[in-house]
Specification:
Number of helices: 3
Strand content: 35-45%
Low-confidence stretches: 1-72
Bound molecules: calcium ion
Distance between the termini: 36 Å
Helix content: under 10%
Largest sheet: 6 strands, mixed
Strand order of the largest sheet: 3-28-29-30-31-4
Number of strands: 34
């Protein structure tokens, strides 16, 4: 075989497309279902495969970086084969908080250490996912609005190779992609709404999710020889969050009674459902008042009050007061609202809940939010105490953590990105050309440094925590509208 540089990509792409038909026919029924979301065409650029001596992967602007040569497989791994998982919302719980420490922000305005041009693979980037590779480094997948995706593998030295992934039938316009890396390095994407998505994400469970076309999703959970089906009215776009005890949470009972339309469509939710998967207990439902809706696609699960049990945090809106934040407890007798914030006070004003983390100056747990992110977002930090959810600090910086109408809710994240022991909230600036780190200090929140993008943020922020000493090292990535994957490591 003779090929070099980008010719290799075309060679492998056409080869794999031809080979795919056979692979499809040989698939098991489970594999056939997976194929709804799985890959049909893949090209792998392996410099070594092009013959000796190995040539580096061609890359505009950075021609001298080495290609990483790695074994290649594709498709969503079966549950026991899963090595690592990457969510657009950082964790299966929906809490956009990275533990570990990063090395970012050492300059006042830091540039990315790795820049990869993705515009020749993905026209309009929408999502970014990242997960650890079993042989070291991380895999980054950029997904466009049309579902077309490209995966890169980077090492700590910035080396990388890439594969192309094509999704002909399914796109990720309704539910964000979830990156699944197998134990032998297979790269697959799924969602919590895919037939076998939850089955893959929960290795101990046997779950199928089937939509019936009437707005119902039916979760069939099998234990031993018995199976039960739980119906959830969460079509078309509620995403399941996974609790630390494998309880699934989904917004439920779609309703159009609050026609704000800030997040994808005019439908919001009248309830949240909790479905214990591990112990076989029945599902429970928390129904909101008649005029209230959950305005979002999924809640955050986090142990806000430190008692060892996760709370469920949601944004609730109505035509009288606009958005407010609520904290729900899930106990033995079901779910109940434990605390609520003051509402904004005006209809069709939204609050974007980002993360629960030890933001406080002494490590106190706080909920970070961006109030009215479409019209000059204000960063607000809330504490939970004595059944009250109270704002303890705010900063009117015009933060722009969400694009009005978009289903991408993951453009802001929390973590100790600069390794100083304090947790920062990282949010897009007003024009989204930079990411601003906010830190709590006394009664204040203040800007401490910025990451420069050079072009508006197009995707969510993604990251991985690489094993590094006892703590783990946060690596952060983002894709700009100009089509550059930027990685800070
Ligand atoms: Ca909606
Ligand atoms: Ca708790
Ligand atoms: Ca920090």
């Amino acid at each position: 075989m003779q090929c070099a540089g980008s010719q290799c990509a075309h060679y492998y792409l056409s080869t794999m497309m031809k080979a795919n038909g056979g692979w499809h026919r040989a698939a098991t029924p489970r594999r056939a279902r997976l194929l709804k979301l799985a890959l049909v065409a893949i090209a792998l650029i392996l410099a070594a495969a092009c013959g000796a001596p190995a040539a580096p992967v061609a890359d505009p602007g950075r021609p001298n970086l080495d290609a990483v040569v790695y074994s290649m497989d594709y498709g969503v791994p079966d549950g026991p084969e899963v090595y690592s998982i990457g969510y657009t919302y950082a964790n299966a719980s929906g809490n956009r908080y990275f533990s570990g420490t990063g090395g970012l922000g050492t300059d006042e305005l830091s540039s990315a250490s790795v820049r990869i041009e993705v515009s020749r693979f993905v026209d309009i980037p929408m999502w970014l996912t990242a997960a650890i590779h079993p042989d070291g480094g991380a895999v980054w997948v950029v997904t466009g609005v049309d579902g077309k995706s490209v995966a890169f593998r980077t090492g700590l030295a910035g080396r990388r190779g890439h594969i192309l992934i094509d999704f002909p039938l399914e796109t990720f316009s309704l539910s964000p992609p979830i990156l699944v890396i197998g134990k032998s390095g297979q790269v697959g994407l799924t969602t919590t709404r895919a037939v076998d998505g939850l089955d893959t994400l929960l290795p101990g469970a046997r779950i199928e999710f089937i939509e019936d076309g009437a707005g119902n999703g039916n979760l069939r959970i099998t234990r031993g020889d018995a199976s039960s089906t739980i119906s959830v009215r969460n079509a078309p776009d509620a995403t399941f969050m996974i609790g630390s005890d494998s309880t699934l949470y989904s917004y439920d009972i779609s309703t159009d009674r609050y026609p704000h339309g800030a997040i994808g469509d005019q439908n919001e939710w009248g309830a949240v459902t909790a479905i214990p998967v591990a112990d076989g207990a029945g599902a429970s439902l928390l129904l909101l008042n008649d005029d209230d809706v959950f305005e979002g696609l999924y809640p955050i699960l986090a142990d806000f009050d430190g008692d060892g049990v996760e709370e469920i945090i949601g944004t609730v809106s109505n035509r009288t007061g606009g958005a407010r934040l609520i904290v729900i407890e899930n106990g033995k007798t079901g779910m109940r609202i434990a605390a609520e914030s003051e509402p904004i006070g005006t209809a069709f004003r939204w609050t974007h809940q980002v993360a629960v983390a030890p933001f406080g100056p002494n490590g106190e747990m706080e909920l970070a939010t961006i109030r009215t992110p479409h019209i000059g977002g204000v960063a607000e930090f809330y504490r939970l105490s004595d059944g009250k959810l109270e704002r303890v600090a705010s900063l009117s910086g015009g933060y722009s953590s969400h694009v009005n109408g978009s289903r991408n809710l993951d453009m802001a994240v929390a973590g100790d990105f600069d390794g100083d022991g304090n947790v920062e909230l990282l949010v897009p600036s007003r024009n989204r050309q930079s990411l601003v780190a906010l830190r709590r200090s006394g009664e204040l929140a203040e800007e401490v440094w910025e990451l420069w993008l050079g072009s508006p943020l197009a995707t969510n922020l993604a990251g991985v925590v690489l094993p590094d000493g006892s703590d783990g090292r946060i690596i952060l990535g983002a894709v700009t509208r100009d089509g550059e994957l930027l990685i800070w490591q």
